[in-house]
Amino acid sequence: MQRAFLSRGSSLGFASAGIASLLCLLEQKRSEPLKAVECVGRNNSQEGRTWKEFGSWRLFPDRLRFLLPSPPVLCSHPRSPPESLISFECGFSEVFERVKPAVVRIYGSHKDSPEAAKFMGSGFVYKGKGGDGDSNHPVAMTAAHLFEENPSYAFHFVRTTNGQWFRARIRGLSSLADVAVVSIETRRSLPEVTTDKTRARPRQGAFVATYGTTQFANEPVGVVGIVSQPSQTFPQIEDSRIKFIQLGLITIPGMSGSPVVDTQGSVVGMVVKKFQEYGLGIPIHYAEGVARCIEETGKWDPPYLGMVLQEHKQRVVEGSAEGDDTESGVMVAQVKGGTPAEKAGIRTGDVILQVGAETVGAYQEVLEFVGCRAGVPVKMRIKRKQKEMDVTVIPTTQRVV
Fold first, then answer.
1. DSSP letter string over 340-384?
2. 243 and 273 in contact (C-beta within 8 Å)?
3. According to DSSP H, which parts of 283-331 are helical?
4. What is the 3-state secondary structure (H, E, C) of 98-118?
5. Tally: H helices and E strands in the chain
6. Which of 91, 193, 239, 278 sits between 20 and 30 A of 261, alpha carbons compared?
7. pLDDT digits (tens, 9 = 90+) for 329-351
8. Per-residue model confidence (pLDDT) at position 64
9. Angle in degrees, CA 299, 305, 309, rounded to 5
10. CATH 2.30.42.10 fits 307-393, yes or no
11. Which of 101, 29, 88, 37 is nearest to 261 (CA)?
12. Burial of residue 281, with CB atoms counted within 10 A of its CB: 0-12 exposed, 13-18 middle, 19 or more buried
């Protein structure tokens, strides 16, 4: 017992001595400027890797480098590039600097008083190249409900964050997708955003930010938060074709149409609705797909499949014992005659397991992964009774009543 006590006391003594030495070293270094260091991982899997992303680690002087714990493993998600613009010292400043030049304020005015333009909401330039001809004007994207709530405005304008005013024209909008496309009437090229091309939604808990203008202020604002839920649905919103990105950041009135950006400054979504004090966005790959159709035809006709879908979950039974696992999918509750679904061989009672390479568990996911264009063949994996098979559906815009 005494030996154990002495051993414990010796450990405490060594720990106290170590803390005292550390304090002396810190006191000695306090008057010296802190040197930025690169912390190298000591994990076998991360040996020799430089950790530049964690700005707070760079505040340690070289002599304390050995005290650093093994650095955390970087996120390996496919839509998380290795370089981040955020840092301990500057926060999201670099992110906002990247997206700011492409953000615009949208105004409308009545025919009898075009000079009395009133603020409507935010938007962002996603095609900035200018030139001769109507089709070569810079193009901005925003939320469609901004124009639907103000139908009496005859003229529209945009104002950039550096104070330039331009006439604007609505190229088209979709109420169903809540996406509008605005042509900015100038031959000059304007700064444009960088959009995420992975088609993957941001992860739950990932840092995101939005940058836009507000209804009662003159200057744009930036707001930082996280992704609360990347694929959210609400019983009150029955007509939604797609799951929302629920944002854990405050959304101020006037920020509808603002871009949602990740830590690299790439746009991953657009703010379209508000849930209590927080924002709901749609993924940028969906918004861009709708916008391209509007650019080409002036409208967006959603792809039509011709079947009624409902969620399907079935408990898996193994042997004589009932398991806890469930088999997910989307059940086909009805197939209408003469539709793309019937022509593809889909029957009532089939369960859709995959659309393309994506596993589905809700009807909104089926509609999202089908895409935004009619006439493009879509491969689906379905299950009929106990047999899985692949079918190819070619959506149309012609609806069968």
1. HHHHTT--TT-EEEEETTEE--SHHHHHHHH-S-TT--EEEEEEE
2. no
3. 284-297
4. HHHHHEEEEEEECCCCCCCCE
5. 6, 21
6. 239
7. 999 999 999 999 999 999 999 99
8. 44
9. 120
10. yes
11. 101
12. buried
Domain with CATH 2.40.10.10 in the chain: 97-184, 199-288
Q: For residues 255 and 253, give the distance between their C-alpha atoms in angstroms, rounded to a whole number.
A: 6
> Does pTM surpass 0.70?
yes
| Span 249-283, pLDDT tens digits | 988 888 999 999 999 999 999 999 887 778 899 99
The pLDDT value recorded for residue 268 is 96
Amino acid at 207: F
Identify the pLDDT of residue 349. 95
Other CB atoms within 10 Å distance of the CB of residue 208: 25
From the list 223, 232, 224, 227, the residue with the least C-alpha distance to 202 is 227
Task: Name residue 128's amino acid.
Answer: G
Phi, psi of 368 (to 5 degrees): -65, -45
Structure tokens at 203: 């992860």
Superfamily of segment(s) 199-288: Trypsin-like serine proteases (2.40.10.10)
The tokens describing 328, both together, are 């997910």
Q: What is the pLDDT of residues 174-208, one digit of tens each?
A: 999 999 999 999 989 999 999 988 878 999 999 99
> How confident is the prediction for the chain on average, in pLDDT?
79
Give the Cα separation of 13 and 286 in Å (integer): 63
Alpha-carbon distance 283 to 267, whole Å? 9
Cβ neighbours of residue 123 under 8 Å, at least 6 residues apart?
103, 104, 105, 106, 140, 141, 142, 158, 182, 257, 258
pLDDT class of 239 with cuts at 50, 70, 90: low
- Separation of alpha carbons 116 and 237, rounded Å: 35
User: If you classify domain 97-184 with CATH, what class do you get?
Assistant: mainly beta
DSSP 8-class letter at 206? -
Tell me which long-range contacts 65-73 makes (C-beta under 8 A, separation of at least 24): 65/37, 65/39, 67/22, 68/39, 70/41, 70/42, 70/43, 70/46, 71/39, 71/41, 71/43, 71/46, 73/43, 73/45, 73/46
